[in-house]
Amino acid sequence: MRAAYPAQMGIKPVPFSWGAATPEERGPVVVSRHPNTLKLRNAIGAYGGSYCVYRALAVAIGALEPTHMPNLFNTEPSVKIGPHPQWADPRKIVSIDPYGHVVASAFRQQMIDGMDIRPSIAITKAHMTLEEMTTAVRQGRIQVDGQVVINQRGDLNVVKAAVEPVWYLPGVAERFGIEESTLRRALFEETGGMYPELITRSDLKVFLPPIGGLSVYIFGNPAYLSDPTKRLTARVHDECNGSDVFGSDICTCRPYLMYGIEECVREAQQGGVGLIVYFRKEGRALGEVTKYLVYNARKRQEGGDTAANYFLRTEDIAGVKDMRFQALMPDVLHWLGVTKIDRFMSMSNMKYEAIVDAGIEIRERCAIPDELIPADSRVEIEAKIASGYFTAGKVLTGDELGAVKGRDWDDITH
Ligand SMILES: Nc1nc2c(ncn2[C@@H]2O[C@H](COP(=O)(O)OP(=O)(O)OP(=O)(O)O)[C@@H](O)[C@H]2O)c(=O)[nH]1
Ligand SMILES: [Zn+2]
Question: In what residue span(s) does the GTP cyclohydrolase II domain sit (predicted)?
Answer without folding.
Answer: 231-366
